TrEMBL record, chains A, B, C, D:
PANTHER family: BCDNA.GH03377
Chain ranges of the GFO/IDH/MocA-like oxidoreductase domain: 135-268
Descriptive protein name: Gfo/Idh/MocA family oxidoreductase
Keyword Oxidoreductase: yes
Alphabetized UniProt keyword annotations: Oxidoreductase
The keyword Membrane is assigned to this record: no
InterPro entries per UniProt: Gfo/Idh/MocA-like_OxRdtase_N, Gfo/Idh/MocA_oxidrdct_glycsds, GFO_IDH_MocA-like_dom, NAD(P)-bd_dom_sf
A GO molecular function held by the record: nucleotide binding
Length: 368, 368, 368, 368
């Protein structure tokens, strides 16, 4: 069976999805998907041609409804996620949706409910960083007990795209237009990684900060509503503890999704800015060892047989796409699906509203 | 005037004080201090000779009372700090005391009160890491506004000296014998650095963990009472926010006193395991720049005129000793004195007891 | 016009070419090439389908002759390069050939001569590392005089794929089967980088080493003929000097193509194992600054608008493919073409035979 | 017995020797030396007092002749080394001399001859970097066969103290006044390290460069005579090969004495700018492991019982001083003595004159 694909959105992640759909069979084998339709308000024929899609359309609803489409990639602004994902689910399509799920927890809940009502359709959220070979190696080391019992997690995800105070005000900085701020853009990625490594969150206490309270607009200074940064303490259901930090105003940081796990028998350290390195210390080692990614990691091997030759950001997405195709084909389930994604949303919304008070994440346990 | 010195204790920090007293005039000029008496239960004549002290004694009280002694270095276990420091103050001596001040907040309060009653005598707590050239350079960059307004602090101090669960139980793991655990050993250092860079703490929320609840003893497993690790969120009086973490069970970490400050106009990053590097990013820079310590930093220049030639841990203590001597001689005051040390104690004790609830540090403001 | 492509070879670099052909228009726009035929002894229909080629064949000559083919990608063992490249040139096709050009200098010379006789056909050698965004940024910094006049080059390219002495003997370790050893596999890449940054080589002195003289084979130990490592001193035509080293037996090195340039006004440092970092020091800077790749570099921007998000090894090849297509379309010439490739071959063959004596590279000047 | 010390010179290395003499017994125990006399043209009484010397003198010959002096530290400009060392030897004193030995090979030969005629007197050259704990650990790993048979050495020692072309001309840039340039200042250190790790040099080929041919002087531009940088290829007597590079005009480098050894079974990597890190890879390891210096290394333990706490440049000299005292007391011989130092001189002078032609170092074998 050849999978028919609609892709909605042609920005940063739209192009990234396109490259993934184009190369997934080149990397992993199998039948290349049929790139049926590229949907964008501008109906970009040239992009459709360059990206190998059969046609372009300005009408995303038509794209979703296209009977030749089996799966819909949604890479549009967050405020459009719910309507598009729900339309796709109702049309019987599988859904590959960029994170975060939606602007509000209520929206995310509704989407998860609808997905639960369509159990035969696969949903997958685009948490890229779960697919890097180094992360997968780390997850395997934790799962295999190589570092013993995880005791502590320390994680940050910092960038500086909003650090410049002269950056103009935009609707992305409002609750209604942009939902959460750094937590929605960056923090949810860190939660996805944290939960994958450490298991469910039982309780958290968080603080947020708006570092640049107003920004210039044609009508004069306007208030920024969503957080520039957030900090949290975490109690995991396992009994482990963690610290969590994210910022969109951390000068000089570009993709610093950096974490470490202290286990009873070893420590792992990772930084996405050096995404091909995993640092491992096991009890008895003389220090930390730098593991370069290589073909010992199966999803690296699909791209290159030579170690140390550098996996790239976009290739993470090809792996994610492979997982989606496999799940659609009845193979191993992939995640985070909408149910797991809702858990991530609950955690970041709890962080956004904690204001220094502990919040219990009972639901986290149920979903885990 | 030649300063007469008594040194109590001959362990890790005792030897470190001895090397500082021996070399302070070699590095910085002036009259070398007179090393009057070395006090230790074993009355180690050989050490006194090797370290250049005129005599050894088993009687620390005699050492404190010696009329030829002007200043007393106290490097004994924490439970002895209060009695020795108070005796020295009452004998009219200046006091150089290793951190933490005492086992309990009450003890630290009493010591600070007594020091306040002896305003002509200098007190100095041994917070080594405040004296490294890289730290001093960082503090100057913050003070000079090079990174703009400090917005966020992220700090950890991790070691692994207690990570091995087969390490036997010791009295240091009890409240009565050892006071706080990782917070008393390591966390207080991180607080000293944090407060020096960010100013007073207004509020904190913390959690602690005992990773190895019991340890072997001749009488069978015994309970560990004080924390193996602690995490905290910080609200500074300035409005900035911070995260704080310390652990004595972080496998592979040896002296990872690592922090970063996000300012409105730049970022600083430091790790004591590479104590000769300070990483600086200013708005507009293409990335982070690695500043190696060098003779541009005056306290480096006193030791070596060549940049990149490596300042060492012990040399921090020589700088601290110079600061002490200068203050005793009527020059610039040095710190943290007992008053500032009490603020540090309040913060770590607040962390130890927060249990996930916010604690206001009103006193911090007064002392700052 | 849609470019018709034949790809010969389905190994490491064959797959890499396939991914480049698949994604070049997705990344850079334009009309995707028509993937006409995939040639391999096994006539792999499944790979042709997965990689999007119209058909597979076991007959590379038929693939080259296919009238629907405009350009031939050659990714087969080095001993086949000459015959295939010459056939393609004679058939009027453009040629994209993996390095090194051939087993012998005579073969390379013949290939360059034939290419010169077909001036309307583009030839391009697969020197991947010339296309990384960090390298391109470095080349621009040198060209723009940011580091002043280049004085010295220090370069290594080390891997460890032959370090294990129990690795069996293979025909690749003979002159007839494998040509040069580390110089042919790795050293030529380093030469490509060195010449691009420093200009022509005037003279060199080199030494080579066979670290593992014999290797196991079914017939007993057999002699390794080609070098495991090589070292050289370089005099550039510019007057600058350089050191050069390559090894296939450097334990722990995976893709350490590491170089630095000392200029009269600054220094650049790069290591392919961290291919997204370029370290830059200019006179007056406090230290070296780590430049992460990002969308300021146009060929990065084609893949990702977010800095620090990690360019990958395979994406270098997409850039190379774009250069090839542009040159075929009459745009900027691309290189190294066969003439420039011959210069690289002359350099590595001179290194292979220098045996500690100076060798003048007069021809290098002519070709530069 | 208490050793009586004369120190000649009060500059960079003079102060470093003073700190070593002051602290050697504090670190290692034993009787502190008696600091008899500090000799310098300015007869600096204040320095003598601060550094703990009994007296100062402007007459170095008187200092050498002082019957209370057993050992003479010579830290003056290189042109004075021969006269002072010979006077000290003739006066029956042990000699601790900073590198390089002398301005000319003839001088060095004469000094070695005289030392050989005084076999009861210890001579030691100040090759600091042989004493760092990380280097000693590396040497032990090589000696113990942990990395198998050493196959290749790659070493550089770069600084940038002469990189600025506006730096005025000085007598240090002449052969008569300064002897060799970068080779004499820096390269000889790298040779000391290389020979200690790899054994004798059999043959070398080298090139040198004067990057800044003239420099400003009150009389107008004057020619620089000695080399700003040098490169060499090395054949070791063992059959191993090496590359060697040194520069005093490498912008941004401060103390980059960086080397690596490829062994048949592992690799070591070190950089003096991070002097507390040794990187080790053994066959089978997943990557390179960062060994931080710590008390497992005995000479670290003498200074600090806590790993990762940072050994400093000056502490290397305390270790060197301990080795000298031990040898004087009849314990283990220390080195490089004048005979071994002559070998180092022969190597750097061979490099200075090779001009791209191989030079055989027969004498190296005899001395090794």
């Amino acid at each position: 069976m050849t999978l028919g694909v609609a892709l909605i959105g042609t920005g940063f992640m739209g192009k990234c999805h396109a490259m993934a759909w184009r190369n997934v069979a080149t990397a992993f084998g199998g039948t290349p998907p049929r790139l049926q339709v590229l949907a964008d308000a501008a109906a970009p024929d040239d992009l459709a041609r360059a990206w190998g899609f059969a046609r372009a359309t300005a009408d995303w609803q038509a794209a979703v409804a296209d009977p030749g489409v089996d799966v819909v990639s949604i890479t549009t602004p967050n405020g459009l996620h719910r309507a598009m994902a729900e339309a796709a689910l109702r049309a019987g399509k599988h859904v590959w949706l960029e994170k975060p799920m939606a602007l509000t927890l209520a929206d995310a809940q509704a989407m998860a409910d609808l997905a639960a009502a369509h159990p035969g359709q696969v949903t997958l959220l685009g948490y890229n960083y779960l697919r890097s070979p180094a992360f997968q190696a780390a997850r395997a080391l934790v799962a295999d007990g190589v570092i013993g019992q995880p005791l502590a997690f320390r994680g940050v995800y910092d960038e500086d795209y909003s650090a410049d105070p002269t950056l103009p005000w935009s609707w992305r900085m409002t609750h209604q237009g942009g939902g959460l701020g750094a937590l929605g853009d960056l923090g949810c990625h860190l939660v996805s990684v944290m939960v994958a490594l450490m298991g469910p969150v039982a309780e958290l206490t968080a603080m947020t900060q708006i570092a640049v309270p107003t920004r210039p607009s044609p009508e004069g200074p306007r208030a920024v509503e969503n957080e520039d940064s957030a900090l949290a303490l975490i109690r995991f259901a396992s009994g482990a503890q963690g610290s969590f930090a994210t910022s969109r105003v951390a000068r000089g940081r570009k993709c610093r999704l950096q974490w470490e796990i202290h286990g009873s028998n070893g420590t792992l350290v990772f930084d996405q800015e050096n995404m091909n390195e995993l640092w491992v210390h096991r009890a008895g080692d003389a220090g930390f060892t730098r593991h370069l990614t290589g073909p010992d990691q199966p999803d690296f091997a699909a791209f290159c047989p030579a170690p140390g030759h550098g996996f790239g950001f976009n290739e993470q997405k090809v792996v994610e796409c492979r997982d989606l195709i496999r799940a659609i084909g009845g193979g191993a389930p992939c995640g985070p699906d909408f149910a797991a994604g809702l858990t991530i949303e609950r955690i970041i919304h709890a962080m956004a509203t904690s204001n220094g008070r502990p919040v219990t994440l009972e639901a986290a346990h149920e979903d885990a």
